[in-house]
Amino acid sequence: MYLNCHSYFSLRFGTFSETALLELAKENKVNHIALTDINNTSGCLNFVRKAKENGIQPVVGIDFRNHHQPLYIGIAKNNEGYKELNDYLSHHLHYKLDFPSQAPTFNNAYIIYPFEQAHKLNKQNFDPHEYIGIAIKDINKLKFSKIRIHTHKLVVLQPVTFRSKKDFNAHRLLRAIDNNVLLSKLPIKQQACFSEKMIPLDTLVEKYSDFKHILKNTQTLIKSCSIDFNFSKNKPSLNQRTYTGDLQKDQILLQKLCQEGLAYRYKKPDKQVLDRIEKELKMITQMQFVSYFLINWRIITYARQKGYYYVGRGSGANSIVAYILRITDVDPIELDLYFERFINTHRTSPPDFDIDFSWKDRQDITQFIFDTFDNVALMGTYITFQYKGVVRELGKVFGLPKFEIDKLSTGAYQPNDLDHISKLVLLYGKLIEGMPNYVSIHSSGILISDAPLHYYSATNLPPKGFPTVQYDMLIAEDLGLYKFDILGQRGLAKIKDALNIIKYNQPDHPPIDIHNIKDFKTDPNVNALIREARCMGCFYVESPAMRMLLSKLKTDNYLGLVAASSIIRPGVAKSGMMREYILREHDPSRKDKSHPIMLDLMKNTHGIMVYQEDVIKVAHIFAKLTLDEADILRRGMSGKYRSRKEFKDVQTKFFENCTKEGYETSLIAEIWDQVASFAGYAFPKGHSASYAIESYQSLFLKAYFPLEYLVATLNNGGGFYRPEIYLHEAKMLGATILPPCINTSHYDHILRNTTIFLGFSLLRDLDTKTSELILENRVQKGPYKSLENFIERVAISVEQLSILIKIDAFRFTFKNVHELLWEAHFKLNGFHPEQPLQPVLFTEKKSTYTLPKFDRSPLEIAFQQIESFGFPLCGYYPLLSNPIKDKNGAKDLSRYLNKTITIYGYLISVKNTKTHNGNAMVFGTFLDQYGALFDTVMFPPVAAKYTLRYKGIYYMIGKVVSEFEFLSIELSKIIKQDYIQDPRYA
């Protein structure tokens, strides 16, 4: 009987979930109910699924509104009607159109005009699918309205938006946030009426006792509606079923592609390879995943045709068919990858391919997918209100001053000191926390479905310009829609750009096959970088944590790097297994501590779970779970799925089965802790291998073309560290670094032999448009001959020109910067860049003037560089106000082992973490005065006393310690050093 119910997916309006709505219906003995969120269908799929579990007949629709002013409610008669409503809503969302005051004709959907809206329209005639909604508050008005004559068109339309006064208050706060006004200034028309609540069914019937025909009409309408989606365990996939349009042709094409690609991957394929191919093809066909492989193959084929680099990773790297099709570069035979992790008869979802492209190429790949396939949309996700953020918003709504808001959002208060308003902010902050704020785009997911995607929800059109569904990945998978993951990363762009820089900087060098991974894996120079942890700039292996791990492991091979990329993940580290792995790497006899079954399952990782596949092996063989149950356990490692009933049931069965097998309780608990610690973090082995391959490509370039690679790194946004650190690394490797030059520099940084000319992009305050004008004019008319010639050719303001002069971009004139600034201000006095430049027909006689002699010290240059691009090219050590007291550096750590050292360090990286007790602990990475790296740790007592947050030079005292020959300093005292005063303003 309730045809207009709102969940919190009526964004910044509704106050409870779609499942809470169903609980409310059960409490009030309502067995038919419609979810009609405002201009949104995010909750519909889960509402339909959960309604059936609660014994309620679900109805879905949309409450169409302009600027939150009600127009009409669309109710789907069936799945076709739901699609019609989604088509209509999506069209208006995509083009940002207001809805017309009267709805169009729908073939499979009803339209209900609220009583007030029907009056406003003065509508006399109603089509068969049109009705007038009467709320409880409208009943008395109806008795005196001419609308009452439309007896067969009147239905109950009692909106449901609140459960309680608290909900109503939360609603008003959400509306104030949405309208960006004080609560006291919130317009009445922007909020719902407090009467929008659900009452028991018998009470509702009593309210309409004078208009029994309204009740009858409503019953007839609601019972004629039926919506159904298949959420069963063995549901069919809703992804595009065929690639060619014919299942048989798909199978033939996949076999043909495998035959053609085999020679590229295996020169002389043995029986193991051929048997594996046959086994996989049979399974892929049986599970009806052929089109999924072919669609991925089509995407990467297009990428190769365009010269785009990509990395196929995820569990898809466990497949030899994927390897042969060149979707991945990971050889599953070499790594003994567990195919059943990827596809098994117990798993209904398609395999998981994550394909990384350069961040520069991803947009074109996405456009290609939308152009090539029929039913495509980006995956949605919900951005929820976070506590700190919502407290700030509520503080503004209540009119609190900024300092009060800051205090509440950071938690810097005593509860007993808070006034009534502040307590309300915190109370409602907790209530609103976790509610959806807006629908956004999943980081990588793309849906390619067999049927139009509007069968499942409406779509938004975010700024990226691609339709995006209004539900998230979990609901999509439960429905049978499985995403294709297309990601963008900078590491691939760095590799591609490095090769281009090598071409122009070393034109005589033979072409480089960057996909020649087999040679890279055995290259001693590349492996030396890994063993010695000299990996700055090289994908994920450059971080301080990875550098520390590689130093401890002394890894110098591909398989070791594959394992390292997984054991550094928080899950393994948290369980204590990372340390145990290192111990066993150095002392193989320690693996005898493992249970024989664990050791047999994980021979190559010393009996320690490292990969997602290990979880499946342990669950299936050690705990005797079925492969299906083991896969539920694996999926349970993602945070959202972990709370589901299916995961809890499997967890219970894990303990029960292990007990039946006769394992000791302590052993069962230990193994489960290892499994549980993987929550949301563990990699599939193939995924780690994919990362290792990209790392080897980066390491090869760093080993043989370090300057080219570092320039490419800088031009692609760097990596883990700040740009100045990569420039420092280049300097340590022999580069000369020069500031931007008007006649040499480009927008990005360029390399000439061993000289790096910094690009205009590094200048903080230089407009991109100005850079483009400079470069375009230089291409068309050649180098600039003087400052005067530059001013004649480029429309530039004196402020923008001053930025270039101060950074010494006109040094080719051999004039002092101050002299050039005088000249610039003299020439451009009163000029605005918007004025058109007039062609110079005759050279004017120039006024002459005599300027005093100017001096410019190196310190002045350094401070100008800090102002212009954030750091001085000379480094910060020459700027210290007090001279350095001692000469200790990273090279001296071994001399001070287990002794106290005093040392200076420039902070380049800091990681704040917490101990098991929740106490703060800090890891810092520094550059010493000679340019070498060293690492430090501050344990809780020291971390509580000193702050290590901001970049700068610190004087430190601490004890040098060694763990697996990795030297670091346990700090006891730090003192941040001051710089001299800027001489320009002294």
Give a written overview of the molecule:
It is globular, with a radius of gyration of 33 Å. It starts with a strand and ends in a 10-residue tail after the last strand. With about 1000 residues, the protein is α/β, with parallel strands linked by helices. A seven-stranded mixed sheet has the order 1-2-3-4-5-6-7. A five-stranded mixed sheet has the order 8-9-14-11-10, sandwiched between helices. Strands 18-19-20-22-21 form a five-stranded mixed beta barrel. It has 40 helices and 22 strands.
Produce the secondary structure layout.
Layout (H helix, E strand, L loop, with lengths): L1 E4 L12 H10 L4 E7 L5 H10 L3 E10 L2 E8 L2 H16 L14 E6 H7 L8 E5 L4 H4 L11 E3 L8 H15 L21 H7 L4 H12 L23 H19 L5 H16 L3 H16 L4 E4 L6 H5 L7 H4 L18 E5 L3 H11 L3 E9 L2 H11 L4 H9 L9 H13 L3 E13 L10 E2 L7 E2 L3 H7 L4 E6 H16 L11 H6 L1 H8 L12 H10 L4 H10 L2 H5 L2 H10 L9 H6 L10 H11 L4 H9 L3 H4 L2 H16 L4 H12 L8 H20 L1 H10 L7 H10 L3 E3 L11 E3 L2 E3 L10 H14 L5 H7 L4 H9 L10 H11 L30 H12 L30 E15 L5 E8 L5 E6 L1 H6 L7 E11 L2 E11 L10
Helix pairs in contact: 9-11, 15-16, 15-17, 19-32, 19-33, 21-32, 22-23, 23-32, 27-28, 28-30, 30-31, 32-33, 33-34, 37-38
Give a short summary of the structure:
This protein is of the alpha/beta class and 986 residues long. It has 40 helices and 22 strands.
Strand count, sense and closure of the main sheet? Answer: 7 strands, mixed
Distance between the termini: 78 Å
Q: Report the oligomer.
A: single chain
Structural class: alpha/beta
Residue fraction in strands: 5-15%
**Which ranges are low-confidence, i.e. pLDDT below 50, for 5 or more consecutive residues?**
none
How many strands appear in the DSSP assignment? 22
Q: Whole-number average pLDDT?
A: 91
Sequence of strands across the biggest β-sheet:
1-2-3-4-5-6-7
Helix count, DSSP H or I runs of 4 or more residues: 40
Helicity range: 40-55%
Q: Please give the radius of gyration in angstroms.
A: 33 Å
3D shape: globular
